[in-house]
Design goal:
There is one protein chain. The protein has three helices and six strands. By secondary structure, the chain is of the alpha+beta class. It has a single domain, classed as NE0471 N-terminal domain-like. The longest helix is centred in the C-terminal third of the chain and has 6 residues. The radius of gyration is 12 Å and the shape is globular.
């Protein structure tokens, strides 16, 4: 079974100076460089703190930035800034 076939969800989400960090429901911690998410990279510290968890922890939505990031994007390192359907 591949990692993407396992159902994981984000439990804790935060950013630091250079990374989006996520603790998953299976206790793994991911750190993805903000450069993978240009809208997040260019956001203010305040904007980075404002988000909504969607899809039962499978996605992170930032309304003000029009940014949608899935747990899968963080695991695979996908570089995308378009919206995905996580609702």
């Amino acid at each position: 079974m591949s990692i993407l076939e396992k159902l994981v969800s984000a439990q804790k989400i935060w950013t630091d100076e250079g990374c989006l960090r996520v603790t998953l429901s299976d206790d793994r911690q991911l750190a993805t460089p903000l450069s993978y998410f240009p809208r997040l990279l260019n956001a203010s510290k305040v904007q980075r703190k404002i988000f909504e968890v969607r899809g039962g922890g499978r996605g992170i939505h930032r309304e003000e930035l029009d940014e949608e990031i899935s747990a899968e994007d963080s695991i695979t390192g996908s570089r995308r800034s378009d919206k995905s359907s996580l609702e």
